[in-house]
């Protein structure tokens, strides 16, 4: 069998040039997809009428759309007809759907989250066992920022399929109520000190003044030093009520230890 080296050389040159063109096209397409995402995000942000969550989602959608077009162009560069490609994809759609069912469910969940918008950028939420502030929503992932500034990435399928607790949905205040035992002779002093600290806390709703009261007597076995239950009541944002409660407990423990 003879080999036509001229034909082989011409084929190698042709496919080599096509490979170089494909690499250049992929590089340009990658840059263009990022540029289009930034452009669309910036244009939608300028209007101030589009929710930031929608802006980020549409920008992500544009990026993947440009990458899909570039991928088809690269296939055509090597002589692969898109009509044949569609036919092959149609014949293997079941296998592809089964293999990518997790990814496709995340994509579908992302669309549902975009349509119904159970939360917005900056909302404090609890979902799928995680709590944090919503930072972004992409085609496949929801990004939260935890209280310790840790990034949390959740697949959209888990977010859509779980109960969503949104602490920012309804503006208002939450009640902080803490009760702990104290000696009767130190109750007044402790109450004054706790009120003094609470009035300095910027997280509290200062239109509703915090209060400290004795709710019941716990132990009178020793008449000289009975034990009372001191209850602290205050108003704070729902997302910060837990932190305020812990702060009150820590401060009360320190005061009791000093007393």
Automatic annotation (TrEMBL):
Q: Which residues are in the Mechanosensitive ion channel transmembrane helices 2/3 domain? A: 61-101
Q: What is its main location?
A: membrane
Keyword Cytoplasm attributed = no
Q: Name one GO cellular component term.
A: plasma membrane
Keyword Cell inner membrane set for record: yes
Q: Pfam families from the xrefs?
A: MS_channel_1st (PF21088), MS_channel_1st_1 (PF05552), MS_channel_2nd (PF00924)
Task: Note the SUPFAM superfamilies from the entry.
Answer: Mechanosensitive channel protein MscS (YggB), transmembrane region, Sm-like ribonucleoproteins
Swiss-Prot/TrEMBL keywords: Cell inner membrane, Cell membrane, Ion channel, Ion transport, Membrane, Transmembrane, Transmembrane helix, Transport
| Any GO MF annotation of the entry | mechanosensitive monoatomic ion channel activity
Q: Which InterPro entries match?
A: LSM_dom_sf, MS_channel_1st, MSC_TM_helix, MscS_archaea/bacteria_type, MscS_beta-dom_sf, MscS_channel_2nd, MscS_channel_TM-2
Q: Which domain of life is it from?
A: Bacteria
Q: Where in the cell is it found?
A: Cell inner membrane; Cell membrane
Q: Which PANTHER family match?
A: SMALL-CONDUCTANCE MECHANOSENSITIVE CHANNEL (PTHR30221)
What functional role does this protein have?
A: Mechanosensitive channel that participates in the regulation of osmotic pressure changes within the cell, opening in response to stretch forces in the membrane lipid bilayer, without the need for other proteins. Contributes to normal resistance to hypoosmotic shock. Forms an ion channel of 1.0 nanosiemens conductance with a slight preference for anions.
* Record text on subunit structure and interactions: Homoheptamer.
* Protein family per UniProt: Belongs to the MscS (TC 1.A.23) family.
Its name, as the record gives it, is Small-conductance mechanosensitive channel
Provenance organism: Bradyrhizobium stylosanthis
